[in-house]
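Saturday, quiet lab. Running sequence design on the structure tokens for the scaffold JK sent over.
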């Protein structure tokens, strides 16, 4: 189908839509204003994606139900935050003191209760299909935003998704740290650090040898998407290995005490600290995996003794550090699990998989913090009236980064695929 432009550049189909709005009290000027609001004009230059693997309970964190029955509400009490009217779990006191820095999305909902499928949905913004692997945020942002060749565009702490690049190709894959950082120590990243007597001169000789083989094989490797992706990834790794600023970015000993003091020594906290150094150095997306949220049993002890204090220390430090470095407005932050957990407590004192209601946090990148968007019903069993889908959250996240979520890519077989097919922007955040 051809799209005809009117003389002022408006698509004919959009002009007809605008005319249809007249009967609702909205005219052309209103339509153009709405269209402009949906245009891509993000402020963020980088992003941090925090994956709470296992699926955290919304009922015990950011969507408390103090008036629900004993079978649902759980053991925790809610506390006030520094934003009037917003209340969260008592075991998140540091996050309560910086609630103005992030927005809470409640009543986010989908139907995939399996870990892998739910994770793929939340890491791509597209409901998984058996016939297609969608690229995760890191791959898309690496492709769309680019970056210096001697700095990794995407870094995963400690590891990324099973198929992070989907159909895009290996060259957009993340650099995986393979471990979490330790307080006050530089990280030795496999593939970047020189060890066992290896010198840069040795690396140069090996690179020269590889180039001679590339010349001998001609265009064969370039015509094969897997081989060309591996070659591109290897060349970037070589350039990063020679880069002093890449190695410095992974060196936590270089962080001033005023910033490092915002974090405790836990693995998640130090991962959050490292992520601020990486985006400061030019990395486009840092993903952090923080697992242990699959609380089918002993939910409340596990949360209050470990998960929630670690989350509180790390995330609060992350928001404050980005703000102190002047990076919060230019860094979009997305915190999510793959689903929520059952509002009704099971017989083992736990909560089970529950995708019908969950929370997400969004911050930075020009998105307005200090607000709650959406709501779940009185028992936390589903959206109260407005459904926010993972697609909508993804579209909004991309928007903050200036990425048009409706842009089409083509798979190796020529199939056209939108970055996010069904997502709508969340108006309170754009």
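Result came back. Writing it out in full:
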């Amino acid at each position: 189908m051809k799209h005809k432009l009117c003389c002022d550049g408006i698509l004919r189909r959009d002009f007809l839509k605008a005319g249809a709005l007249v009967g609702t009290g909205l005219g052309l000027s209103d339509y153009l204003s709405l269209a402009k609001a949906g245009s891509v004009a993000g402020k963020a230059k980088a992003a941090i994606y925090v994956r709470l693997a296992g699926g955290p309970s919304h009922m015990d964190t950011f969507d408390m139900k103090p008036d629900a029955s004993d079978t649902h509400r759980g053991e925790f009490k809610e506390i006030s935050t520094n934003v009037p009217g917003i209340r969260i779990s008592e075991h998140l006191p540091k996050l309560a003191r910086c609630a103005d820095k992030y927005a809470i999305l409640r009543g986010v909902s989908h139907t995939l209760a399996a870990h892998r499928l739910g994770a793929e949905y939340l890491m791509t913004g597209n409901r998984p299909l058996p016939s297609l692997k969608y690229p995760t945020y890191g791959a898309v942002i690496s492709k769309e935003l680019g970056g210096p060749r001697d700095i990794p565009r995407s870094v995963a702490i400690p590891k990324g998704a099973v198929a992070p690049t989907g159909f895009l190709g290996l060259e957009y894959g993340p650099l995986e740290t393979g471990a979490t950082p330790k307080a006050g120590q530089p990280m030795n990243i496999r593939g970047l650090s020189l060890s066992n007597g290896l010198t840069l001169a040795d690396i140069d000789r090996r690179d020269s040898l590889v180039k001679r083989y590339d010349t001998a094989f001609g265009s064969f490797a370039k015509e094969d998407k897997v081989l060309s992706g591996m070659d591109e990834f290897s060349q970037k790794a070589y350039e990063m290995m020679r880069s002093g600023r890449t190695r410095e970015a992974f060196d936590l000993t270089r962080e001033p005490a005023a910033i490092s003091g915002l974090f405790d020594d836990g693995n998640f906290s130090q991962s959050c600290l490292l992520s601020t150094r990486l985006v400061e150095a030019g990395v486009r997306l840092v993903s952090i995996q923080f697992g242990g949220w699959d609380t089918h049993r002993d939910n409340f002890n596990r949360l209050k003794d470990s998960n929630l204090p670690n989350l509180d220390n790390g995330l609060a430090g992350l928001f404050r550090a980005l703000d102190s470095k002047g990076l919060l407005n230019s860094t979009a932050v997305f915190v999510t699990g793959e689903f929520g957990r059952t509002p009704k407590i099971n017989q083992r004192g736990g909560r089970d998989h529950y995708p019908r209601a969950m929370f997400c946090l969004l911050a930075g990148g020009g998105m307005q913090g200090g607000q709650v968007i959406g709501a779940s019903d009185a028992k936390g069993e589903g959206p109260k009236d407005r459904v926010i889908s993972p697609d909508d959250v993804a579209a909004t996240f991309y928007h903050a980064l200036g990425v048009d979520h409706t842009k089409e890519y083509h798979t190796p077989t020529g199939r056209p695929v939108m970055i996010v097919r069904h997502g709508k922007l969340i108006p309170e955040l754009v």
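Notes for JK: Residues 1-38, 194-200 have pLDDT under 50 and may be disordered. The first strand starts at residue 46 and ends at 52. Ask whether to fix the surface positions before the next round.
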